[in-house]
């Protein structure tokens, strides 16, 4: 290999590293920190009070009008109601578009169904519905490179009718350039349980051409959840929700689902009192961080300004290291903090809770290479590069 070619490959590697590994972005963190727990409870209560939102009901129509009016009051103007009919009744998908400044014709779809079965569905899927509303509130004035479509599907409980309709009547005929479908369904948690883990779902079914990219995006999603919320994550297969028609059409999908699964979905007891609104709050924070990462939120800060994370004093030594690495921090709150290590593909390879100012980590089981160490406690996050050789 000649020198020019070697340099070319090196640049590609650097570019790839930059493009797909995530570290904590203080600009995104500042936005995430404005997620409102009280908005979430208020919206969940409103959603619950509409009642049982089945196809053809007054309740689903009232919920649809409420969702539309919420987007209008947030300042969105591109709001489309997409009617479709099944079992003799007409119901609507709601599609809200925010245009990106660099790639206006490439879309991140963030979706949640709002129809319910047998009960008010405050968890399934009021949780996803209000999460989208709160994200949309905070993203409205943020410049993003990619366009975002917030889609509230109907007809999910009857067999993914609304999402199938959208894929077959909009996405495919209009040849929409969809870079990712991010589906949120049932993230309410269980009242009284320790709701500290979130399932991130990736595509493991046919067709298989889109599966690797789905896993990459799902790893990014899990990493963002770790960076921007206090939740842990687990990966699992995607199934049985509105991403399925998209994955069948060859699109790249990812999704979120609660780890503690409510026993009340599709019953009259799927109500706020049986779920954990603080879990919805944390899932919203992580999802918003991920949405900013996927749609590439653009900070108005100049690159010359010192970001808060650069002022923090975290020492890693020796660096490069052969495997035993000592970390020393000056985090204000020393009750605990967590170190996450990601490889250059953004995949988390190590996580440990630390409780001392100076601590030695044994990383000898990790392969040689470049890693990003992220230190995080409740209020502060710092990322540093580490080389193992
Ligand atoms: Zn659902």
TrEMBL record:
<feature type="domain" description="Secretion system C-terminal sorting">
    <location>
        <begin position="316"/>
        <end position="387"/>
    </location>
</feature>
<dbReference type="InterPro" id="IPR026444">
    <property type="entry name" value="Secre_tail"/>
</dbReference>
<keyword id="KW-0732">Signal</keyword>
<dbReference type="Pfam" id="PF18962">
    <property type="entry name" value="Por_Secre_tail"/>
</dbReference>
<protein>
    <submittedName>
        <fullName>M28 family peptidase</fullName>
    </submittedName>
</protein>
<dbReference type="Pfam" id="PF04389">
    <property type="entry name" value="Peptidase_M28"/>
</dbReference>
<dbReference type="InterPro" id="IPR045175">
    <property type="entry name" value="M28_fam"/>
</dbReference>
<feature type="signal peptide">
    <location>
        <begin position="1"/>
        <end position="21"/>
    </location>
</feature>
<dbReference type="InterPro" id="IPR007484">
    <property type="entry name" value="Peptidase_M28"/>
</dbReference>
<feature type="domain" description="Peptidase M28">
    <location>
        <begin position="93"/>
        <end position="280"/>
    </location>
</feature>
<dbReference type="GO" id="GO:0006508">
    <property type="term" value="P:proteolysis"/>
</dbReference>
<dbReference type="GO" id="GO:0008235">
    <property type="term" value="F:metalloexopeptidase activity"/>
</dbReference>
């Amino acid at each position: 290999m000649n020198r020019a070619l070697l340099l070319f490959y090196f640049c590609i590697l650097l570019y790839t590293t930059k493009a797909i590994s995530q570290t904590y972005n203080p600009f995104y963190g500042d936005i995430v920190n404005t997620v409102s727990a009280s908005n979430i409870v208020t919206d969940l209560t409103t959603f619950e009070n509409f009642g049982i939102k089945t196809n053809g009901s007054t309740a689903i129509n009232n919920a649809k009008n409420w969702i539309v009016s919420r987007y209008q009051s947030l300042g969105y103007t591109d709001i489309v109601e997409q009617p479709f009919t099944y079992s003799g009744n007409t119901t609507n998908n709601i599609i809200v578009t925010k245009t990106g400044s660099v790639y206006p014709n490439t879309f991140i779809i963030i979706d949640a169904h709002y129809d319910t079965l047998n009960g008010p569905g405050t968890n399934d899927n009021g949780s996803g519905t209000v999460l989208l509303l709160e994200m949309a509130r905070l993203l409205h004035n943020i410049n993003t490179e990619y366009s975002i479509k917030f889609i509230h599907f109907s007809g999910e409980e009857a067999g993914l009718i609304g999402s199938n309709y959208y894929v077959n009547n909009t996405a495919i005929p209009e040849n929409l350039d969809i870079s990712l479908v991010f589906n949120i369904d049932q993230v309410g948690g269980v009242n009284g349980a320790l709701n500290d883990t979130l399932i991130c779902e990736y595509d493991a079914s046919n067709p298989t051409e889109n599966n690797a990219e789905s896993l990459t995006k799902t790893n990014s999603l899990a990493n963002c959840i770790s960076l921007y919320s206090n939740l842990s994550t687990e990966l699992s297969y995607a199934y049985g929700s509105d991403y399925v028609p998209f994955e069948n059409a060859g699109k790249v999908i990812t999704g979120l689902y609660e780890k503690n699964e409510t026993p009340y979905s599709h019953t009259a007891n799927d109500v706020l009192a049986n779920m954990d609104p603080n879990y919805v709050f944390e899932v919203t924070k992580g999802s918003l961080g991920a949405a900013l990462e996927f749609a590439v939120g653009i900070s108005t800060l100049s690159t010359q300004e010192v970001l808060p994370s650069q002022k923090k004093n975290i020492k890693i030594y020796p660096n490069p290291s052969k495997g035993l690495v000592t970390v020393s921090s000056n985090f204000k709150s020393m009750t605990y903090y967590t170190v996450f290590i990601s490889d250059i593909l953004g995949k988390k390879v190590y996580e440990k809770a630390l409780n001392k100012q100076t601590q030695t980590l044994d990383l000898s089981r990790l392969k040689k290479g470049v890693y990003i160490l992220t230190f995080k406690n409740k209020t502060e996050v710092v990322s540093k590069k580490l080389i193992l050789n």
